[in-house]
Specification:
Length: 240
């Protein structure tokens, strides 16, 4: 059974994840940078640099949230970045941010289901995702749809939490994720389940070589995994 945010509810994972992000949307950016000590900003920059040689003109940012990764992708000088997300609350915050930065001519945010993307085949030069794939209801289906909308020769770049393997970081990371992070998250977001779900979803996610296996299964080639910050997160790359 997949990990869900609200164990006392009957809704499926997709609906629960949308509700969870709606609940925490106004405090999401603050919590994101606070709980990662700002390292998430560096991770996004590193991930975008991996597309520098490709110079993609049209980029799709899946599970865009409040648009941070879409904004970072502008470093590549694309003609357009389209961000999709299932949470209206997160998109509303993202649209405000993009308008304030006067970037709405370059970034378009819209409602969208990662497993049923409303785009034709072979449309995008690159597909990017930051900390979103572990929230998919059906991981394989979501990755297969990314593959479908990507142009031949295009790349997918995904950042996701992973599980450090080495002592003592593994033990320290697990303690922080299990006991400290949920308490800070609850205090600031007022949603206890959201930050209990986060470590549970990371634990259940097939990281490293297991994730590369799923990428290959749906058709991606030249797959690579680059661990970040002692394996706390990883960047995954695949080509169509």
């Amino acid at each position: 059974m997949s990990v869900v945010p609200y164990k006392d509810q009957q809704e499926g994972k997709k609906a629960q994840v949308a509700n969870m992000f709606n609940n925490i949307s106004k405090r999401y950016d603050l919590l994101n940078h606070l709980l990662s000590l700002g390292i998430d900003i560096t991770w996004r920059k590193k991930a975008i640099k991996m597309l520098q040689k490709d110079q993609p003109k049209l980029i799709l940012d899946i599970a865009t949230g409040t648009g941070d990764f879409a904004i970072e992708a502008l470093a590549l000088n694309p003609e357009k970045v389209i961000g999709v997300d299932i949470s209206e609350g997160m998109l509303a915050e993202g649209k405000k941010k993009i308008k304030n930065k006067k970037l709405d001519h370059l970034i378009e945010l819209q409602m969208g289901d990662s497993e049923k993307l409303l785009f034709e085949e072979n449309k995008f030069d690159a597909v990017i995702v930051s900390f979103g794939v572990r929230n998919f209801e059906n991981l394989e289906k979501g990755l297969a749809d990314m593959f479908r909308v990507l142009k031949p020769g295009g790349k997918v770049v995904i950042i996701e939490f992973s599980k450090p393997k080495k002592f003592p970081l593994k033990q320290g990371y697990n303690f922080y994720f299990k006991y400290i992070l949920p308490q800070i998250g609850k205090l600031i977001s007022k949603d206890q389940s959201a930050y209990t779900y986060l470590p549970e979803s990371v634990q259940a996610f097939p990281d490293g070589d297991d994730f590369l296996t799923v990428l290959k299964k749906v058709g991606f080639t030249n797959t690579k995994c680059r661990p970040l910050t002692f394996g706390i997160s990883s960047i995954y790359i695949g080509e169509k």
